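User: Can you help me understand a structure? I only have the sequence.
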Amino acid sequence: MSRICLVIPSNKFDQYFIQLPLDAVTAAGQLRAEGHTVAIWDQRLQDTPDGDEFDHLVFYTAIADRAQCYPLELGPVRAAVERATALFPSARTVAVGPHGTNLPDSTRAELGVDHIAPGETDSATVGAVRSLLAGARTPVLSDTATPHNLLDSPEPRPRPFPNLSLEEMAFPAYDLVPTARYTAEVINDGLPLPGPCGMVLAARGCTYGCTFCHLPFGTRMRRQPLDRVVDEVAAQQAAGLNSIFFLDYVFGINRAFYSDLCSRLEGRGVGWFGQTRAEVVLKNDVCAWARAGCQGMWLGAESPAIADTGVHKRVSEKQITEAVHKLRDAGIVPFAFVLLGLPDDQACSSGRLVDWAAGLPAWFGINQLFLRPGTTLYDELAPQYNGGSLPTTWREVQEVTRRYRAAYPTDLDAQQQRLTELPNYLGNAIAPVAS
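Assistant: Let's start by predicting it. Here is the structure, written out as tokens:
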């Protein structure tokens, strides 16, 4: 058997929250069940790992809560690799996450690791260890390559490791991390503030086809057994976390499943948060969510004109407004994702998006659009900003987004600054107070 250390790098988002590395504790639980000695080194919270020697180091380029909107900058991950390999120079190194899944050779070269393991990070971690112990030596730990859907792809996207069965997967190894120290937005006296908070994935996947969205769990919905979901909530409560964030991308999409889940959560004394879409809110009994402990719900609102932007998200401004009010009327604090820079977004180009966000009776967070490998929008637009071909390095990927933003018909940085000055911008509630 092997000695394995799963490494979580620090990143710039640590200033607000440090969220539970759900995929790492899940992979660790499975590896430990297979007889390995496992440690998790969360460099955001731990100076050193629990162990003197390791055979394998597995680096997470973007943990579960960041995988959908993963950063294009790999500098923090490279720093984690350098820090870990300086302590354990004889260990074989593997990177898992969306970067290697979409640009494996470029990711391996930039990080300086021995191997890339594509696929969902927990499954890729387990698959990589199994492959290495079986004698694999290839740089990309994949049986075969599946060609990219575009003929001019700079490098083929490898076939990911198969997903572990959610019914048979071992229980997460929460004891390997300082569970009670993980945080997210929680509601305190009606206001969102940073506080202790865990994380659960009741269901993986998203059946919607928004072209700007990276879907690390794919487009097919896979539900965990409800007993397992409730046991994970209970385990995190026992470790000191009475707030939970459901990372499911469309909470409530399967009304029977989520109704049963809410029935199981009612009366357990856990406050929880989730994320979903406006039209799903309008089809659900959100009062039942509130009775089950739901305190806040994020909506992928993006823009009042998103239905007209050609990114395959047909949600109207009216639906967004009605969903926000429906949540508020049920006693659930609404949150909205705002996305600047969608193609042909007239609300953004005209500046109306700022007034719309200001009038939302909800807290909102802001992102500017990134063109990310692994999304349809990237495949469509990246060649236009890279001389007619897709990028071959992460530096070129970053440059594509820079050029896209520079060509946008309005100053996105100036518009973002206006948004951050609004009283319902979430950053103004949760930002660290200067001493």
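Now, to help you interpret it: The CA atoms of residues 81 and 111 lie 7 Å apart. The first helix runs from residue 22 to 33. Let me know which part you'd like to focus on.
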